[in-house]
Amino acid sequence: MNTNGGFEPVFCTIVPPHVLDKLAQADDPVLAGPARRTLQRDAYERTQRRLTTVVGARATAAPATAEAGTPHRTIYDARNGTDLPGTKVRGEGDDPGKDATVNRAYAGLGATFEVLLKAYGRDSIDGNGLPLDATVHYDREYGNAFWNGEQMVFGDGDGEIFLDFTIPLDVIGHELVHGVTQYTANLTYFGQSGALNESVSDVFGSLIKQYSLGQTADQADWLIGAGLLAPRVTGVALRSMKAPGTAYDDDVLGKDPQPATMDGYINTGSDNGGVHINSGIPNHAFYLFATALGGKAWERAGQVWYDVLTGGELGQDATFEEFAGLTLAAARERYGDAEELDAVGKAWERVGVQAGAQAGTRAG
Q1: 185 contacts 3 by C-beta, under 8 angstroms
Q2: In this model, does residue 60 exceed pLDDT 80?
Q3: Strand stretches in 84-187, DSSP E
């Protein structure tokens, strides 16, 4: 487990670069302009994150008055500027205001905190009560949301392709779980380990939504970002865990490129080696595992994934096979030779991933 503070430089966005690249090439300047500005802003923020990693991030700690196991949320308003964090507009315990975006961000941080604490016994994303900060109304027509290693940031979208990024709860959960990964396995954001980093955020983002809605695995839509796409878009979400590659098929956005199995694995140098694309494979494996077990997916299936993420044996450069092997080992350790072990093994088989050597035993 990587808990020594030597974090990988991380700047994780919910909208993949390939989607924005496609939009930036649109003939309509109403669509292309915001996408180009978003790409430029993302490039700048990514560079700033790397510089921050070199010089050291600002220290954050829970206030002395904060009780263990209670959230400490602060929402800031960038007022369509880019200075972070912006102006404080709502603190922990403050009543809701008139700005629905602020209220959704506050509620989403709380929902994520609640799932981490109640389902997995984790006190905030670092396990030690880290305050949760978020900035809304970032930039002008900014078409993304991101975790920059320290806080959440949400754009308002352009209203043509993307709506307000605080609308889908799983987007909020997804980005915050990048923080959990940062404080635990610290998966390198490239290639298969980067796709696992993205997939873990999709998995727990979906589980946070399911927990909030009280849904069982068979009731859930298994979509990431449902409600984010504007009415003109032919699509339902950014990604589908149930059926990767089917989330959208639009004349402007193109077709969802995610593969569901290793037969469709895409070797690419873009998007950090396809981290948002090939994440469809472990996403689908989790969906198959959770639906085979049935019931509340954050319980048994989610617990196995959480055990692997936080167990200390997942390498920063882990492959799909290594991750799969650890899920089998975790299922055996927690549940024995029971249906959980059988279900997770079959899920990986169906997506074409052969579990690595870690499947046998886990170190004590």
Answers
A1: no
A2: no
A3: 87-91, 132-138, 145-147, 152-155
Tell which of 131, 149, 183 closes a domain. Answer: 183
Query: Is 276 a known active-site residue?
Result: yes
Q: Give the CATH number for residue 165.
A: 3.10.170.10
Active-site residue among 141, 150, 175, 340?
A: 175
Q: Which DSSP string corresponds to 24-92?
A: HT-S-HHHHHHHHHHHHHHHHHHHHHHHHHHH-PPP----TTPPTT---EEEEE-TTS--SS-EEEEET
The answer to whether the CB of 172 falls within 8 A of the CB of 112 is: yes
Residue with tokens 């991750």: 323
Residue 291 resides in a domain: yes
User: In 3D, which of 205, 203, 196 has the Cα closest to residue 172?
Assistant: 205
**pLDDT tens, 64-76?**
556 789 999 999 9
Which entry of 276, 321, 322, 340 is annotated as an active-site residue? 276
In a domain, 244, yes or no: yes
Distance separating alpha carbons of residues 323 and 221, to the nearest angstrom:
25
Residue among 354, 361, 299, 293 at smallest CA distance from 330: 361
221 and 168 assigned to the same domain: no
Q: What is the tally of structural domains in the chain? A: 2
Same domain, 32 and 95: yes
pLDDT in tens, 84-95: 999 999 999 999
Q: Which domain holds residue 130?
A: 12-183
Active site residue 175: yes
User: How does the average pLDDT of the chain come out, rounded?
Assistant: 92
Centroid of chain to Cα 15: 11
95 and 244 co-located in one domain: no
